[in-house]
Amino acid sequence: MFILVLFLFLARGYIDKVLVKCRESLITCENYAKDLGVNIAVENMPNIDDFLYKDINELNKLLINLDIGMTLDVGHAGVNGFLENDMYFDSIKHVHLSDNNHDHDMHYALGEGSIDFKAVIKNFEENNYDGIYVIEVNDKESVLKSLEYLEKL
After folding, report:
1. I want to staple 70 with a disulfide (CB 3.0 to 4.6 A). Which of 23, 91, 128, 142 is the partner?
2. How many CB atoms lie within 10 A of CB 78?
């Protein structure tokens, strides 16, 4: 099963029209995906001016309404002020893992920033999450450090 990730951003001054078009586009993508037998999952965005769906609660409401999955980017949620225990929703089908200090989306190796991945993983396990975790860091060394970090959890 393939998961498509959609990146959504805001066109200044036209927020209402942009949100309507985003919704229409997501419905079109979801219908097309269903015809092909694949699922889509929309990723929450980092804290960058004019990006839509930085708020995981807002994104979750939209996706539940449209019956579409979410790709939760833990690093993006962290820089947008969400606590580790507030990062789980039943709509989540895919998770991107990278660390930061809750200020910039740096894609550090897990354990090199201040995100509490033990709490994140525990929260997902307690909710019987059975989707995919992807380590989304800057280089091979960071992947290896992240895997070692996860093994210690």
Report:
1. 91
2. 27
